[in-house]
UniProtKB/TrEMBL annotation:
Pfam families: Fapy_DNA_glyco, H2TH, zf-FPG_IleRS. Keywords: DNA damage, DNA repair, DNA-binding, Glycosidase, Hydrolase, Lyase, Metal-binding, Multifunctional enzyme, Zinc, Zinc-finger. GO terms for molecular function: class I DNA-(apurinic or apyrimidinic site) endonuclease activity; oxidized purine nucleobase lesion DNA N-glycosylase activity. It catalyses: Hydrolysis of DNA containing ring-opened 7-methylguanine residues, releasing 2,6-diamino-4-hydroxy-5-(N-methyl)formamidopyrimidine; 2'-deoxyribonucleotide-(2'-deoxyribose 5'-phosphate)-2'-deoxyribonucleotide-DNA = a 3'-end 2'-deoxyribonucleotide-(2,3-dehydro-2,3-deoxyribose 5'-phosphate)-DNA + a 5'-end 5'-phospho-2'-deoxyribonucleoside-DNA + H(+). Belongs to the FPG family. The keyword Cell membrane does not apply. It comes from the Bacteria. This is Formamidopyrimidine-DNA glycosylase. It comes from Microbacterium foliorum. Coiled coil: none annotated.
Amino acid sequence: MPEMPEVQGLTAFLAERTVGRTIVRTSVGAIAALKTYDPPNTALHGAEITAASRRGKFIVLSCGDDLHLVFHLAKAGWLRWYETLPTTLIKPGKSPIAVRVGLDDESGFDLTEAGTKKSLAVYVVRDPEEVPGIARLGPDPLEETFTRDVFAGLLDGRRTQIKGLLRDQSVIAGIGNAYSDEILHAARMSPYAIAATLSGDEIDRLYAAMRTTLTDAVAEASGKPPADLKDAKRRGMQVHARRGEACPVCGDTVRSVFFADRSMEYCPTCQTGGKPLADRRLSRLLK
């Protein structure tokens, strides 16, 4: 799933190539992906793109103040850019293309989604806050206003495992499964630690790990075209999706815990005092 660094990379790429261009056509290949009907997607035709921005994991292409194309790539979505957009017709349900956007210089992009579970979401709105997922976003962890004390306040009183809290978009915007694994590994912290019980030193360590991990990942994604961002993300991972490999910090074997639709990875030596975590969502450390 694209998370904040990759989405920021895509946003910067689109800002360079779409701002100042006019949308000349849109084609919908997956009706279920288009979550709004007023304004219709055809309202974008003839509109000039004036800004590209990121809200959590959402990308917003603004056409002035009153019309915005917003999309969330979800678990299996991606953006495919063309300097010259194909002219072939999109047949609904016959390809992975959910939405195609053509610009006035013949360039454009497809929003695609692989697999059978479809959750890519596209919105045409007058205000980005009309998108429910944006309206309930928590603060962005790379904003200057997101201080250590703000972070500590978000943890205070929450009897929630820290892994789940980091992934909760209503608490902190933009972090998903992969980067929460990386942040916790950098902080040398168990994913099952309870947020409200963290000491001051642990909060310091986790805050620093979060800021450093995300800042470095955003820098790595900067300037890369969409086709290169996924590989750049994989190369930067220390533990996520590296089950069975050696931890680059201590050499222990990276372990996984599997859930219904995802897994998490961690290093026992670095994070759990050498003890493996049981492979059940609510389990404690194995005795």
